[in-house]
Amino acid sequence: MANSLVIRALKANAKSFSLSSRKLHQIPNGVAKLTSLLKLQLNNNFLSTLPIELQSLCQLTELNLGNNLLKEIPPVLKYLSSLKKLYLFGNKIESLPEDVFDGLPNLVLLNMNHNKIRVLPPGIKRLTHLEILSVTDNGLEIIPAEIALLEMLTEINLTNNNLVSLPPQLCLLPQLSKIHVARNHLKELPEGIFRLSKLRLLDVAGNCLTMFPVDFQLVRLEELYCEGNTFVQHKLVRSVQDMEVLTLKEQAARLILMDSRKECSLLREALQLRPALAAILSHGGSCALCSQAFLTTWLECVQFISLRKDMKVSGPQSVPVRALLCSYSCFNQSGHMYYGVASV
User: Fold this and answer.
1) Using CA atoms, how far apart are residues 112 and 93, in angstroms rounded to an integer?
2) Can the keyword Repeat be found in this entry's annotation (predicted)?
3) How many CB atoms neighbour CB 314 within 10 A?
């Protein structure tokens, strides 16, 4: 039956061809002769490999291999450089070699849902045109920093994995508009998420978050899903300390950081000649209350942001957002809305 379908497609010079749900254990030889194909559907079969002869399908832009028995990504895919959409969901893929994405420079969509993948390799950086990456229901534990090189990425779906953290480089993706990381083991989100100017949907439901990162309220979200986390509550922690004794290093760092903010700063010019020192100071922050600069000594606090009023999105009445204060002097001032979380 499959062979007769191949013959018919050959006569018609078909652009699209489907052998879905045919209980196939191997691909008919004639498929490699369908050199005009743009779309090939081989999903819902029993395929454990693909013949190297399929490299003749050099015009192929969409390939569906979902729900088969693949234990690895077939090597022949390296020769299908025109591919834009690749579906590998529902297989038995456990690992991805470093060079697995070689030869797929035009890939726009990659779906590897429902496999057993634990690590995305740094080689994913080769998918420079990728817009949608979906790796749900795997055993993912690590997302590489090289994810930042996928500058065209608009949507990433990592739902239902074993992630305990996300790389801070994720916040460098200029086109990212949707992040799905529900049902993982995330304890925090990367600082700097507010820099994702196009982010409109964030799904972090069912994780272990206690609060959102600093300046989270600046994200222009349209949808936020955050139920099932262990957020801190409105419980005031009072300070029993009035002031702190700063180390000489911290005092010097604060002076340099504050001075370097000035337009005509000799220290800022001097830092250009001391790249190692500049790198250390780049990790400094500013007090949420008085804007005083600090390097490594701060008080972790939290403010409760109204989703409807401050972010214009639906959801819980308010969510906790991390804030850093430079001193007990600031923390003990009256009139502010920052809560201490030292007991958490």
Assistant:
1) 9
2) yes
3) 11
Six token digits for residue 229: 């986390």
234: left (phi over 0), alpha (psi -120 to 50) or beta: beta
182 burial class (0-12, 13-18, 19+ CB within 10 angstroms)? buried
CA atoms of 288 and 286, how far apart (whole Å): 6
Return d(Cα 319, Cα 304) in angstroms, integer: 5
Contact criterion met (CB below 8 Å) for 237 and 215: no
Mind listing the pLDDT tens digit for each residue in 248-266? 777 776 877 777 777 677 7
Show contacts of 98-102: CB within 8 Å, 24+ apart. Answer: 98/122, 98/123, 99/123, 100/73, 101/126, 101/127, 102/78, 102/126
Residue 79 exposure: Cα atoms within 13 Å on the Cβ side: 13
Dump pLDDT digits (tens) for 63-98. Answer: 999 999 999 999 999 999 999 999 999 999 999 988
